[in-house]
């Protein structure tokens, strides 16, 4: 399908649908009229096969207790193998209502109060809460930033592990918000440090399918790094929600290859959350994995074009703006500091540009002056956001 036809068919408006992104603007930002470029979900309808499958299930009219069918397991296993070369076994797979809930439970299950838990910042802000709310010691290592290209400071990572008795590392792969897909060399070096210092790893891979350039920057699960050398200390959490825009259906996965960690998880998870998928989440996820690949490829092409539009527009009209290299996720990380004082970022973006964004300090206290923009949206929204930023910067310089 041509991109224009795809956008006409699938792009939609979401105001007055109880959308967090659009209908909570007054509550979250104090202004219901902002252009919403925050929240990591899409302005695109799910694959039509998913809608049809949900309609058929709803027509049955009964929503009693259900089981996860063999077909769901197989759809997920086949997707991981076909898309990422990841071979899963059924007994490794567990379910949750969302990745964040799983993070909270895993931090509690895998560590003790006061243990050090390491994260690489800037990072998705619930990581901070999952550590602090469980009364663990939050340990951070700031990524190195070379004009939008982010890399891991391995020396600092090792120092932080040793100095703070780190017992658990939570990684984001691909990394939200900076858009990096870690290379196998980077992952090997990072996981080798965890192996050396007996650190367990939670790998949040919810953005795994959102590869912007699969040829040059393919995603590789932590479970397959170095031919699976580190898989016994890794628990992967992921979901179809980011890939197929299904967040409200409350369906996520945990992949736990190590039988001792599985036993530990199974023995304790009942204290924290349910372990079954919602019936509609199961239907949607299964159908998406079976028939959603072509739809996803269209979405990725739109995200890629939206990113390139921002790059060319800013290069032409505000060349000191820095967009982080976008390798994975549909989120772009924008550095405004060359034009806007960090403390004035909110006034500029929200009050002048009239945009609702995720602000840099949400991801790290050291990243005021950055904003995160969602590119999984109609290109006209991206063009409008870019024009507002460029126009407001131009007015500031007069």
From TrEMBL:
<dbReference type="InterPro" id="IPR051798">
    <property type="entry name" value="Class-II_PLP-Dep_Aminotrans"/>
</dbReference>
<dbReference type="InterPro" id="IPR015421">
    <property type="entry name" value="PyrdxlP-dep_Trfase_major"/>
</dbReference>
<keyword id="KW-0808">Transferase</keyword>
<dbReference type="Pfam" id="PF00155">
    <property type="entry name" value="Aminotran_1_2"/>
</dbReference>
<dbReference type="GO" id="GO:0008483">
    <property type="term" value="F:transaminase activity"/>
</dbReference>
<dbReference type="InterPro" id="IPR004839">
    <property type="entry name" value="Aminotransferase_I/II_large"/>
</dbReference>
<protein>
    <recommendedName>
        <fullName>cysteine-S-conjugate beta-lyase</fullName>
        <ecNumber>4.4.1.13</ecNumber>
    </recommendedName>
</protein>
<dbReference type="InterPro" id="IPR015424">
    <property type="entry name" value="PyrdxlP-dep_Trfase"/>
</dbReference>
<keyword id="KW-0663">Pyridoxal phosphate</keyword>
<dbReference type="GO" id="GO:0030170">
    <property type="term" value="F:pyridoxal phosphate binding"/>
</dbReference>
<dbReference type="InterPro" id="IPR027619">
    <property type="entry name" value="C-S_lyase_PatB-like"/>
</dbReference>
<dbReference type="GO" id="GO:0047804">
    <property type="term" value="F:cysteine-S-conjugate beta-lyase activity"/>
</dbReference>
<comment type="similarity">
    <text>Belongs to the class-II pyridoxal-phosphate-dependent aminotransferase family. MalY/PatB cystathionine beta-lyase subfamily.</text>
</comment>
<dbReference type="InterPro" id="IPR015422">
    <property type="entry name" value="PyrdxlP-dep_Trfase_small"/>
</dbReference>
<keyword id="KW-0032">Aminotransferase</keyword>
<feature type="domain" description="Aminotransferase class I/classII large">
    <location>
        <begin position="44"/>
        <end position="389"/>
    </location>
</feature>
<keyword id="KW-0456">Lyase</keyword>
